[in-house]
Specification:
Shape: globular
Order of helices and strands: HEEHEHHEEHEEHHEHEHHH
Number of helices: 11
Bound molecules: acetyl coenzyme *A
Oligomer: single chain
Distance between the termini: 38 Å
Largest sheet: 6 strands, mixed
Structural class: alpha/beta
Strand order of the largest sheet: 1-2-3-4-6-9
């Protein structure tokens, strides 16, 4: 592992700043690892977490092809920092009470900024892998859903707790959830705020693989190595195609395939 500094622009964020927020970021060749690192608070997330995640995404080193998201300690993440629900809030970041008085435009902008921390994990140029153990609640579940793939330890537990707390899931998680499990199951899971264990997550397609906890890191390494075995340009184009497939008709998808393949053929063979 090396390179604890992200980028060199105005958006750069160094390791000590990340540590104060409760995050680590490490790059090892083509693999970057983001670690939620506030284990004593079960990796609870704040607005600063999401803003730092967005800055990591904006400044991701060009060579990175795989991004692993993991949690330190007993849980992947216990979701949003519950101090947001108190009048005092999170120091320097306010509370839901203070946000409620900001006006609609400002509130919308604040949530959009938070979503930026999650959106970049879908970029076609990378494959993002959530390595989930223990609890992944609310924002923790949504962070796992923002990733392309989820590898779970057998003690992993997902819960979309927001409706139980009076909120909706707004950190980009509702679309992947519905896409993966279907509308009825998504309604059932969210509106009961029940816990889904690793075995059920695998059955529902919320996990690509479930392994014993001590094998989680190796399973993620193996998956990353397999992903890195494919051609970078082809991988990017294929992910772009797959991401667009559900929103297109068969005819439009065929056209998109032709377009991407023509680009691949030109890139690979134009000079021969
Ligand atoms: N925000 C702030 N602090 C938290 C959070 C959280 N979301 N979750 C846990 N902590 C803190 C606890 O207050 C406790 O701190 P303390 O040691 O200073 O008292 C510490 O983390 C350990 O928590 P425990 O509850 O003792 O840990 P345990 O391993 O027994 O349970 C669990 C873990 C199940 C995750 C539990 O902490 C929990 O239910 N947390 C709240 C989950 C939640 O409701 N999140 C909000 C979801 S909605 C959303 O994300 C938008």
């Amino acid at each position: 592992m090396a390179e604890a500094t992200v980028g060199g622009s105005a958006g750069a964020i160094d390791a000590s700043e990340l540590a104060a927020i409760g995050l680590r970021f490490e790059v090892d060749g083509e693999i970057a690892t983001i670690t939620l690192d506030r284990p004593d608070k079960r990796n609870a997330q704040t607005f600063a977490t999401w803003s730092a995640l967005a800055r990591i995404g904006e400044n991701l080193p060009e060579q990175v092809r795989v991004v692993v998201v993991e949690g330190e300690g007993p849980s992947f993440s216990a979701g949003i920092d519950l101090r947001m629900f108190t009048p005092e809030g999170v120091p320097g970041q306010g509370s839901f009470g203070s946000h409620a008085t900001r006006g609609d435009e400002s509130l919308d902008r604040g949530i959009a900024e938070a979503q930026q921390g999650f959106l970049w994990l879908r970029k076609p140029e990378i494959v993002s892998i959530a390595a989930v153990h223990g609890h992944a609640i609310g924002a923790g579940f949504q962070l796992a859903l923002a990733c392309d793939l989820r590898i779970l330890a057998d003690d992993a537990k997902f819960c979309m707790k927001e409706p139980a707390l009076g909120l909706v899931p707004d950190l980009t998680g509702t679309k992947p959830l519905v896409d993966i499990v279907g509308l009825p199951r998504a309604i059932e899971m969210c509106l009961t705020a029940r816990t889904v264990d690793a075995r059920e997550a695998l059955t529902l397609g919320l996990a690509e693989l479930v392994v014993p906890g001590e094998e989680l890191k190796q399973a993620v390494r193996d998956l990353a190595a397999a992903v890195l075995g494919t051609d970078r340009g082809a991988a990017t184009a294929t992910k772009r195609l797959l991401q667009g497939a559900q929103g297109r008709s068969l005819a439009d998808q065929c056209a998109a395939e032709r377009h991407e393949q023509a680009e691949r053929i030109k890139t690979m063979f134009a000079r021969s």
